[in-house]
Task: structure prediction
Amino acid sequence: MSAPFGADVVAAVCRHMNDDHAEDSLLICRALGGHPAATRARATGLDAEGMEFAVAVDDVEVPVRVPFAHRLTERAQVRQEVVRMYREACRRLGLPPRQAG
Result:
C-alpha cells in the first residue's frame, strides 16, 4: 500500500503545525500521546495512520506517535483529523477549545 502523502505534503503540514499550532501540538501530545509532562512539541512527520512529534520531557526530546481515528487517504482529511485530535485533547484535559475563527 502506498503512502497517500508525499514528502512535500508532510513537510508543509509539519511546518504549518510548528509555525502556527505549536501549542495545539503540545496539548495533543500531553493528552493523546501519553506525555502529560511535556513542555514542548513539534511535528516531525505523518502518514495515513498517524502523526509523529518530538516532545520535550524534562528537557529530553522523545519521539511520540499519535494515531489518527481512521486511515487518511487525502490531504484535506489531515486538517479535519488534527482539529479532531485538538478538540479531543482539550476535552481530556478539561480545557475549552478555541472557537474556529
